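Researcher: Predict the fold of DUF4124 domain-containing protein.
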Amino acid sequence: MPISLRAPCAVVLCAATLAMQASRAQTVYKCTVDGKVSFSDMPCPAGAASATTLAVPAAPAADPAAASDLARQRKEAAKLEKARHQREDQDARAADKAAQAAAVQRKKCGKLKLNKQWADEDVRRASVPKLDNAKLRAKRAGEALALECPQ
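Model: Structure tokens for DUF4124 domain-containing protein follow.
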């Protein structure tokens, strides 16, 4: 999880935990049986040496600042998530564009390699009077290939 989202998530988790604890506030019983003290939400058994009902303090009133702080943090988390989605979309578009450019380059290199291959074949099949022209075409095809497709 990104560091920028940890604090808002931690606050939400703490608020939820406090809300759950406040809703579960019940009577607590302190029982002493055979010299051992135990605490329970059930009344003490009949054979308990001592039984005490502990008063549970009322849950504190909701802090209005906490609610506004939570709302602000949720809004900030939503803004950060939206920014992350925008970055991911932008990165995906850039990757698609790069892949498309690479495909165009591969196609161009393939065409230049084929032209070089044909020019080399023309040199091998050329008659003596046309040999110099064929060699020049093969040399230029090789130079174009080397320029556009360095390997």
